[in-house]
Fold each of these.
Amino acid sequence: MLASAGISGTIGRAFLLVGFIGAIFGAFAAVAGARRNDQQIIRLIPRFATLIFAAAVGAFAAMEYAMITRDFSLAYVQKVGSWSTPALYNFAAVWSALEGSILMWVLILAGYTMAVAIWVRKRMQDVIATWALGVMFIVCAFFFLVSYFPADPFALGPPGVLDGPGPNPLLQNHILVMFHPPILYLGYVGVTVPFAFAIAALITGRVGEGWLVATRRWSLFAWGFLTFGIALGSWWSYEVLGWSGVWAWDPVENASLLPWITGTAYIHSVLVQERRGMLRVWNISLLVATFSLTILGTFLTRSGVLNSVHAFSESGIGAWFLAMFAVVLVVSVGLIGWRGDKLRSPGVIDSPLSREAAFLANNVLFAIFAFVVLLGTVFPLIIEALQDRQIAVGAPFFNKLSMPIGLALLTLMAIAPVLPWRKASTETLRDRLFWPAWCGVAALVASLLLGSYGVAPLLTFTLGGVASGAALRQVVLATRRQGLRGLVGRANGGMIVHLGVILIAVSLGASNSFSKSQELSLVANVEAQFSGHTFELRDVVEVRDDRSISVKALVLVDGKKIYAPAITKYTRIGMNVGTPSVRTSLTTDIYLTLEPPVRQDSNEARIKVFIKPMIMWLWIGTALMAIGTVLAAFPGRRRKPTEPTSAPVEVAKS
């Protein structure tokens, strides 16, 4: 290892430099080819895309090799590497800190660029595809440059270091660290594809519906990855942090939520443009906002301006991303203003009781939601910059303002699926809302019989019942006509997604409103009771390995099974981390944490018990959303694919 010290760094930086040069040449080729319609230059574009992907893979592999071989000549390995870290978490350590996370961003972005270049290879004569690849090359060049300079993972560290502390302990005690960040990044970075096509449409003036159709699946899968990544982050928070919650309105959590909000609005709004040619400015603005918020979120999480359990340490990367954010906004707004005449919609909303009106209301609500989250996230930074004092905006602010927005969105989910395009008659609404309304009544009655109380929870359960009835009505009609194949397609896949969202809303409403907690002082072999459950301490044991000392309390729950909440001290870092133990069922989770101080030779322990109703349904709802996203990505049985196979990507003229 000593003989090869620094070689990984040299190779890795060489790959980053090759990737940056390839991205610059690719951008020049795309711009020159599009402006001159020079097919000879345009045919080079996929080669540059392949080059930068190969360079990104090489750089990432060099970093993994350095981590696996513990090449402590590199500062990054000194920071997150350790001989005692298990192989699984040592592999994931590459993206556990600032420099490695940017390197993973580079890899995924280069992968998307190559995939798009391959996808449009037969359409390269179309100018909008060429311009879109030019935009993606420019974004790639920026990230390669950032990884080469301010976030260099291959920089040499001080000589003589033979071991390191390993990753943050919170990132080496749960398997989800292998999946949550990469999947979240697949969504974060995937937004670049529809954004690039939107900018290309503005540059060429071809702002009709063709580019929307061409990028529909890219948008949908990016949104799906982002959704699933956020859900995995919530699961990680629940299983690791020991506070029994899934969403704390942490600033870094909000940074991932913001592009999801605007992306969700776009996924809905684009239907109106495809069907009626309306909301063109909305759709392009939503894509610009979504991409811009990924850049802003990266600035917030990686510049060190925020204090968060998720945030990375302070670095010089903030100015780079703030500048990129400003450039994206200025260029995008300038292009939208330049193409203002062509963005005017040929259609108008005929009635407030129509599907397009519901989608417009949906856009407005999501825009308000995004503004509330953004305001609460950046307001402390603004106050600190202007008044040199620190304030905190916590969960009460977000809960108070987001609850009415969430209820309004549930109302739209209940009504919009039954609304026809253009105009709805009273008779049509009465017939289509009959069964959904009865589902809402049934949900209300069931909630009252189960002991629910409070205006907000009962409204959530009732509206959830109506919305699920509306979604199930459409799914039943589709499967009655076509069998199970009727579930495939954007409309019915979307209804499956809606059902998942409703389950999540009901789960959060129940768990947030009706959770119970109590701290119990348990004595060995003496039974204690709380909320109809029994808890008995059987033993306190200590487990040691090369990296940690873990003290576990063995607690028998309801006389059936032993659960083991623990406190683990990571010896190289000197940090204590609590690990909860959870009994999960369809109706209720029993969530146990071990409270300090605790000793192995003691016959007593303090245990905090949380009774959390319906948490399992949050994960079931997430799975339904993932299934619905896949179903929505493919055309239904009676729907012919709208994407051209040999014609140019953009065929609609404004």
Amino acid sequence: MLRLQLSACVLVLFSSGHVLSQETSGSERVPDFGRDLLPILTNKCLQCHGGVHRKNELDLRTHASLLKGGKTGPAVKPGDVKASLIWEKVSTDKMPKTDLKLTAEERAILQGWIAAGARPPASADTPPHHEQSVPRKPAEVAAAIDRGIEEQLKRAMIPPSPIAADSEFLRRVYLDIIGRIPRLDEARQFLESKEPDKRSRLIDDLLSRPDYGRHFAEIWINIFNVFRVNDKREPNAAGFRDWMGNKLNDGVGWGEIVHEMLAVNVPSFKEKGNNKVIPVEAQYFVYTAQNMGQLDPVTTTSVTAQVFMGIGLHCAECHDHPFQDFEQTDYWGMAAFFGGLGGNGVPNTTGLSDEPIVIKSGKPPTMVTLNIYSEEARHRNTRVQARFPGGPPPTLDPLKDRRRAAFADWLLAPENPYFARTYVNRIWGQFFGHGFVADFADFNKTSPPTHPGILRLLASEAIASKFDQRHLIRCICNSQTYQRTGKPLPGNKNDGKLFSHMTGKVLSPEALYDSLCTVLEVPEIPVPKPETGKGKKAPPTQPDPREQFAKFFRGMSAVQDPTEFVTGVPQSLRVLNQPVFNKGGALVERLMKLDARPEAMIENLFIAAYARLPLAEERADFVAFARSHPEPREMYNRLLWALVNSSEFSLNH
């Protein structure tokens, strides 16, 4: 997969190959406004009738605005195709006035949608059922997940793959929950266990380990890195990871962690030399700083909307959103909550205060506001009142209330449609390789969730559990859907959306490093020594091997899609030529002392690397090679080198 990371406002064209949505009755195929019709309007019509240009006051971005119409009245008469003005214009090719005329297939979708009553879209904006006061048992939620997945597969006539073997599940759940493969002894213990509930017990055991918190803290930090534009101020990634990881391990809910990140109150930064030191709990704002490293309301607004709300609000920075129903005031109204961060708004370079405004002289303000200050923005220098996206301005007293705390309170409120769904979609995507909504950062009506019922179910559980991440993971990992094999069947090999089988995921750089250390039984993997010589100085401190490995393997940019493979030849050569890999680490030496017979050695090497026994043909080939080689230690080193350099080792199936 190749993802193009776009910044600012870019015209997005959608494919004309549309798939009609299926009504819940299963009796007729009726077009859905969001999934089927809106991509056509976006591609063919919104250049003239969207958020930037609205000829004849006609806005086709939303269902409501389409029914409202423009100067000449409603564009659609539900149920009456011939009386609908948009059909009259499109069917005669009067519109669009460009060469991008609607195809016969696209006209059929529009005609079918109007004839069926011009219904509103199946939307993910519906808040979850937050009246649920306590979370349900994970097994109960897991069963509900499975029912929802199986119903979709049945309607699509796609068979589900069988449950994964113990070895496949074992390696997968270790990598997904604690970010490394199991040690040889851990793998043997699980594979040899006859306990009927050993899988659920393993899930609980992994969630109780310190590595769980660190692993998920790194997942979230890597998500923040995706949106980072600052190259002048290096975040304190290790400190931020430890702070967040400790909270996750202590059972602090994700909502509480996010609230603390957004509403952190540090009136004065500490001095270190000539630099201001931002504490670890405030590091989120370093990741959302502008490109010169200055804390900034604009980039923070864009990143916060994408990461925690799943909306691409950044296209409304300079004008109304071209394709979604967000106005420019939604963007700058949200930015007003972050107005004290710096930038050209309200400068603050000495601290990160979220205290109410103190007025020493002059007329006190009655509202929290921010001037539109982007150079290319329409209505530049217009003062905008703080408001939540898509809603009215809140009652906020700048002399009494903390602005960022007020925003965080709204964000985490049970009735908020954004936070819980986005959180659930991201966590689900980490385990399955893709979410219910394909773009983690942009829930929009052209891409409704594949399983809206399950999304709402898990969002309700998240709210009821106060965003207890362990609870959500237990619900997911105890499901048969999660425990299915990654080996597709002939009838589901082309399924990439309905979760008929597990999707293979690329190991993150951190997980790859930790897994290599685990299989080799070494504390660390040395990094290449920096070049020294004429004109080159040795670094003052030795770099952390894990951090340097992760930085090298991450490549040019961070990636938020677990299925994307971005490493290349340099990274492959690093593993191929690393001396510790060629020497078998400590594992080969230890195993040879225990049982040096080829059959035993090869079985142990496979379990150590893959958490499985070798297949019959693998066993036969490797044993034959072992018996023909004059130097056993060198030969086993080579075998282990081959195992760790395989795609099976670098992928999580």
Amino acid sequence: MPDQGNPGAISYSMTPYTGSWTKAEAGHLLHRTMFGATNQQILDAVANGMDATVTALMQVPAIGDPLAFDSNETIVPFGSTWVNAVYPANTTDAQTVENARVMSLGGWIMERLNQESLSVAEKMCLFWQNHFAATAVSDSRATYDYHMLIRQHALGNFKQLVKDITINPTMLLFLNGATNNVFSPNENYAREFLELFTIGKGPQIGPGDYTNYTEEDVAAAAKIFTGYYVDGLRSSTATSVTAVYNGILHDTSTKTMSAHFGNAVIPNNDGNEYQDLVDVVFLQDECAYFICRKLYKYFVNYDLTSAVETNVITEMANTMIANNYDVLPVLDMLFRSQHFYDISVRGAIIRSPLDAYFAIFNSTESTANYTLDTNMMMMLNIYWLAESSGQAYATPPAVAGWPAYYQEPSYYKMWVNASTLKLRFDAATFVTILTGIPVNGEFFKVNALGFLDNLSAPATAATVIDDIADIFTPKGISATQKLILKSVLTGGQPDTVWASEYNNYINNPGNTTYSDPVRTHVEQVLYRVFQMPEFHVM
């Protein structure tokens, strides 16, 4: 709770926020829950209020399947989905088709981020991709199924997601579950299941004892997980990749967990035994604390102080436990809380590469609207740009995910260094004041005129700058910075000149004599904003 004797003290209260609800608060909410909110979305959030906006954000919209667009896809026609298609029988031809499907998958993921609706769904999909950090496998159908699984459970039940991910073909392949059997036990998935996916390690308190589990628990879990293999990889007859249980490969012995799990005894239950283990592990409240800490660091701040742990994480965990590990009630409470809107946490997160690049495009209402193949190649260019900046969506660098989400003490600071920061600046320059991303004779860059037209008062220079600051800088910028940007917008001329230029552009649609100068001025402003430190935090 805030210190009544110190108005500047941080509020750790998880009671509903009752303070002012302006573009600053609404913008903060949308900055954290989306990859780039537009001016109108922020205005709508202000008008609709916090409660309605949070409710809207808690929806997971339906999406389409990835579509074939590359000529190397020889099984399905251009514009059709391949997610239930076979592969060529010839190994070389199958690899060629797989290369095309990898491109389709990458473009599909990026298009989802670029065309997100008012929803936290895409942010949560990235959260789960980081949490269950399986990388793309050799059959894009399996990778697609993995991504759809985490989307299905994006705001759903954490415990059920753990059960489903355990026998997901991509995870079985990624952490050797597909070769874990009674004759050759493999502890890889069992170890990460406990350490990274469910309960966490905790400080070591003895030989092979990590506070929350022991090495013996890892060995027992590995036996429980035996018996599954993956079938259908790049098959010329099977239309999907599946996890198959074979009882001959399963360890049928009775397993006993350590005192950390109440010495629970887990008898043989064949292909369902893994679910029994998940149920036993989730009897420990630490599972809720573990995932709530990660949610907090992802959406609020990495700084888990004792006050945050006591007042915020405890409330989040209690809510999760009371709701049988459903995620939605936890985030719903967090996004309505006094603490979430405290000024101390605004602008506390350095944007990830995906956050930064899609904020540029999404907030300027810039979407690729060309042919399917051109659109997908433009999205792939953004994928590769983010990859060069340290964040390739479908291939986290380690089983623990991206270091910026977990590596103490740097956390988000790891997103930026001399190389990646220069790349951000160069990319922002390229899509604002230069040509944009070139594909098939088309160029994808910020939609400066469309962005301007949808601001609050496009003909009023000062309001244009105010809106831009609200949209792109979560803690705002100084009056001096606003004056400099306004001078760029007006070309150093009186504000009345800008009003005249804008009105001439509006009154002469399609006439580049009037539209080009206006567009150029807006691009110059955005170019400068995207170089500001204030833009690279959220």
Amino acid sequence: MQTGTINVQTENIFPIIKKFLYSDHEIFLRELVSNAVDATQKLKTLASMGKVKDEMGDLTIHVEVDKKNKQIRIIDRGIGMTSEEVDKYINQIAFSSAEEFVKKYKGKSDADKNALIGHFGLGFYSAFMVAEKVEIRTKTYKKGGATKAVKWECDGSPNFTMDDIDKNDRGTEIILHVAKDSEEFLEEYRILELLRKYSKFLPVPIQCGMEKTSEPTGEKDKDGHDQYKEVEKPRIINNTKPAWTQKPADLKDEDYKNFYRELYPMNFEEPLFHIHLNVDYPFNLTGILYFPKVKKNIEVQRDKIQLYSNQVFVTDSVEGIVPDFLTLLHGVIDSPDIPLNVSRSYLQSDSNVKKISNHIMKKVGDKLEELFKNNREDFEKKWDDIKVFIEYGMISEEKFYERAEKFAMFKNTDGKYFTFDEYKKHVEKTQLDKDKKLIYLYTTDTDEQHAFIETAKSRGYDVMIMSGVLDNHFINTLEQKFENTSFARVDADIIDKLIKKEEDQPSKLDEKDQEKLKPVFEKFVNKENYNISFESLSETDQPVIITQPEFMRRMKDMSKLGGGMDYMGTLPDSYNLVINSNHKLISEILNEKDAAKQDTLVKQVTDLARLSQNLLKGQELTDFIKRSVEMIGK
């Protein structure tokens, strides 16, 4: 037997583990299973080179939970270790790294601490996060007299023991004697949960326990139906050949859909389309990204991309790996070139990360442009579901904007789709104002703004639908990009003011008449919220129109989305109350001698205008309906 003291100038290993890795304590199983997979993969490589004398046999990795004896065992039939290798890789490297780690850790910021962990061989250390004692029983694949099986044991102090043992089979068995504060991991369901989270796609079969299933007996009942029996079979946790590790040419569309269901079993909606990533230079990157149908709340969509490193799950927080707008996608990215610390959850600053991010953005742009060019009709059908990705990308990434302006689309109230260039040609002859500025009219709600849309269309104008969750931000971006162009919601002002082409027509009310009428209208609106003005509109236009100024409304809408203008949300809503001085009813109100009747008429036309903007609610709406019935009766 060999005994010794590990060269660690600290009283106990546990404080290091608990202090620096405790927030991710469940990763112990991922690290140990990943080590078992590495040992198995190395054996396969050596066998392919003719350096393994034994038959390979069953290479399944076993994870066993022994609740009675408070043990967890991870068993592989990989390359194993000699006593010299145990001494080198366990006694010298891992534990001496701990001492060095502690020295370098002192005085560092949290960000530096996370980066430092990655420079040390601390994967095996994770065993001590849950175990009061750890045993290694291992036998090398090598043949010869000096290749006896070895048992190594340590209780987390600087002391270890190592001795020769009898072990028939090659490979390594890690035995964790679980500590009292980690006994949750002695529940099989908890271990299964971790294996399915971290090891679901590892390339070597992993078994944990048994499961019951039904199998046909080969016999039929009296009605000719197949008979089944319940049997127990090994529970294999993982799919060793997930779709992203295969060649796109070998996969059908149904294979991609099946893999999506495997990733998101609770998501019952099919993805719109996918992108298969497969890069081996200048970095290694594989994966499949899916475009899902986006819900109104885009935050619900986030954290659906799973990051893997050599098929080991790392994290589903991929900020920094993919551009922010593509965190709305679903799927898998796998790259061994992304630098990670021991908990594999914190990305370190590295030039490869930016290259990978740019490459993913380019591939997404390629796919979208290809879909647009090859089948525009199908692209248009998908537009309402994918526009939020594209708009978000164009807002946040200049390179993506330059790419996407070729296929980004506008949709008008007639349900027709246009590229940016197409739409400009569509409206530039009719929607230039007297200063030759191009005015893009849009609606955010075709029902609420229906009257304004119809008025605009009666003038020969076109109205776009901009009802998406990001459209307010997107409009600001487009106004900065488009030359001599402005966007105006169709109810931002009376239509002849939004696209002013000539001088106002003569008014039937002079200034004296307007000064007489204005106080009557002021009695029925809040002066803080409404700016009253007279306009000489067509006799066929409404007698009173309420509009909401574009700038103030847009800023308030953006503040609701967190546009950095929170103070705007505290300001009162602002409206224009426009009185049509050429309407017959306004003249009647002016000439009405009965003050009570005049007030009733003013209240009625004002409430009608408010109703058109969905501003009449509660008691005021009830009073309006009652008043309307009385007026009809008269």
